[in-house]
Amino acid sequence: MALSVLDLFSVGIGPSSSHTVGPMRAAKQFTDGLESSGQLPATVRVQAELFGSLGATGRGHGSDKAVVLGLQGQSPETVNTHTADDQVAAAALDAELRLGGNHRVDFNWDEDVVLHRRKSLPAHPNGMTFRALDHTGSVLRERSYYSIGGGFVVDGDVSGADKVVADDTDLPYPFTTADQLLAICEREGMSISDVMLANELVWRSEEELRERLLGIWAVMQECVDNGCAAEGILPGGLKVRRRAPSLFKKLSETDAELNGASSADPLLAMEWVNLFALAVNEENAAGGRIVTAPTNGAAGIVPAVLHYYTRFVPGANDDGVVRFLLAAAAVGILFKINASISGAEVGCQGEVGSACSMAAAGLCEVLGGTPEQVENAAEVGIEHNLGLTCDPVGGLVQIPCIERNAIASVKAINAARLALHGDGSHKVSLDKAIKTMRETGADMKSKYKETSRGGLAVNVVEC
Ligand code: SF4
Description:
Elements: H1 5-8, E1 10-13, H2 17-36, E2 45-50, H3 52-61, H4 63-71, H5 84-94, E3 96-99, E4 103-106, H6 109-112, E5 113-115, E6 127-133, E7 139-147, E8 153-155, H7 156-159, H8 178-188, H9 192-200, H10 206-229, H11 244-258, H12 268-285, E9 289-292, H13 301-312, H14 318-338, H15 343-346, H16 352-366, H17 371-383, H18 401-421, H19 430-443, H20 456-459
Parallel strand pairs: 2-5
Antiparallel strand pairs: 1-9, 2-6, 3-4, 6-7, 7-8
Bound molecules: iron/sulfur cluster.
Iron/sulfur cluster binds near residues 297, 298 and 401.
């Protein structure tokens, strides 16, 4: 079982990695399966059923639209985010789908995409079943999939409840716990990003990896730019106004007034960090192009802290960006293997908590932290998010998600700085904090796990 940094950071579409990216991938996988098995020509109808958290909050997260796009051959990496809504509307209006992009079948939205609000599949809260029928109404192919967080999809018929996409590649420095990772660093005299890089080289050259990671960073920057420019109200009916453009204007004016001089306001950098996170998460809520990091709901934290690094840390450069992402991914892998990054499984501690921990580790690494200090930063980043519930108002990734990313970004920077003031020794290990997160998530009632049946979701009046 091996995970790459490119599994943790991938380009997708908002608003949710588990509820939008995952369902789109699953639907495409199903259609690809029809094609490769030669069953596509005989298919006259497809049906999709969404269960558990997907059924409960799928409308707000755009899961139904994602399924329609995936069935028509679109994938999260390449779908045109500007025309996706039009393509979905056309399918509903014309009452037809083009499976895999070409094969036409009749389509009735109400009957063919069913969201079950109270039913679940056995292996995971985010289950889906797809069915293809022939002209007699007989089932040609039926498959269940699980969207297990961060856009990862598991074929339920092949892998059952497996939590991690299986890859049996042998790594030079395998690790499944932070203790093992630290032991490798000590034995080999390597940093955490060195260990990750050495492992990554089994899949691709250093040159290719660097290019891919800087490509991910470019998408993050573009996302911030788009979020700073797009004014207006976010979709979904909550009437949440985008805040990034006006904050960007204010901060830019302050910058212009300062004209290179340092500000008397010691917290100005924090305002920029807030802006970077708001910009990303507003873009996510609007269905824009996003890097899952490690999920969409928590997609603002790593980019915001990386922007902090490149804007405010003297000597920041592309090498640092690459090392930041590698160290952050090492920590993300620990969460993925030993707990979960899915809000539907463990609440928001698994999304915003994991991202905060990853960003703290990445920043600590590029600020010169030792492996022990980086592990300490990651631990602080998750410890103070333990117990965080997932209760999105109206099932939309807006309240509390957008603001929560800004707060967690600042928290990640604080965690890195706290760790750098110590020598790496501390009482609560990262492994123990991750174990605590998993157990806390298991004890959490399902109403706090992305079902919008508890917390803020029931105490805030939707208007
Ligand atoms: S509350 Fe957290 S876990 Fe839930 S949708 Fe929002 S960001 Fe994701």
